[in-house]
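Example record

One chain of 66 residues, shown exactly as stored in the release files.
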Amino acid sequence: MTTEPLNWTKSSYSDHGGACVEWAPTYASTHGVVPVQDSKLSDGPVLMVSHSAFAGLVALARNADM
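Predicted structure tokens for this chain:
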């Protein structure tokens, strides 16, 4: 994990009251790994995933029956 501050971007679903995530796109583009965290736990753990793993998570979320 990094000690540098991360600039988080919330999922578009964060305003709908569901279980949402946020990610740090600037860090992802400069370091080649995508930080992901629970948007309700800003001081909680951060999951670091590859770009392809993150794309898979996004695809899964888009196709989920919500």
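Notes: The chain has one domain: 9-63.
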